[in-house]
Amino acid sequence: MHNGGKAVFSLVLVLVLALGPSACGAGDGGVSPEEQQAAFESKAQADLAAITKTREQYTQAINDGNLERLMGYWTEDATILPPDGPPVVGRPAVRAWYQETFRRVDVDLDIRAEETTVFGDWGYERGTFSVSVAARTPQGTGEPRALGDYKYMTVLKRDGGAWKVARNIWNSNAPEPVSATPS
């Protein structure tokens, strides 16, 4: 019994020596809890500002039809979950999806974030957007046509110091049409 207590004491002593003063709650450099909270809030605000900037630049790349710039905002393991379609998995598939979209239409996208949250190197954003498209034809670009209002959820990941889109899902805010025939 006495040897067990000695082993526990030795383990605690080794941990204290290995971890240093921080193991005892000291060594924080005299930083008060208020200063720690302020530093945390400052980092959180910087992350939110960076995500806002990413969203704005991402939107501009879509509106410009700039595939190369747009792909810079996607992670390698990116996934799109478009409405009424199969998942688009992996950056090459996401590239092909946007390439086909930009080949067929010019896009005018207006995103309105309603909630953005960060958890370490991950974040999510929820909001709404409206979109109009104009068909591209051999004769030129057609008249813009509003597609409606949508809601979205985007998962972001800090990748190489920058916030990038890892997952994106959206669907229409329009109610489903009611069938005249009962099922």
How would you describe the overall organization of this protein?
By secondary structure, this protein is of the alpha+beta class. Helices cover 38% and strands 38% of the residues. Strands 1, 2, 3, 4, 5, 6 and 7 form a 7-stranded mixed β-sheet that branches. Strand 3 (105-119) and strand 4 (122-137) form a beta hairpin. The longest helix has 32 residues, at 33-64. The chain is elongated. The N and C termini lie far apart (75 Å). The model is unreliable at 1-27 (pLDDT under 50).
Helix content: 25-40%
Mean pLDDT: 84
Number of strands: 7
How would you describe the shape? elongated
Percent of residues in β-strands:
35-45%
The number of helical segments is: 4
Give helix and strand order, one letter per element, not per position: HHHEEHEEEEE
- How far apart the termini lie comes to 75 Å
SSE map:
Layout: H1 2-19, H2 33-64, H3 67-71, E1 74-81, E2 88-89, H4 91-104, E3 105-119, E4 122-137, E5 140-141, E6 145-159, E7 162-172
Parallel strand pairs: 1-7
Antiparallel strand pairs: 1-2, 3-4, 4-5, 4-6, 6-7
Task: Summarize it.
The protein has 183 residues and is an alpha+beta fold.
Keywords:
alpha+beta, 7 strands, single chain, disordered N terminus, 183 residues, seven-stranded mixed beta sheet
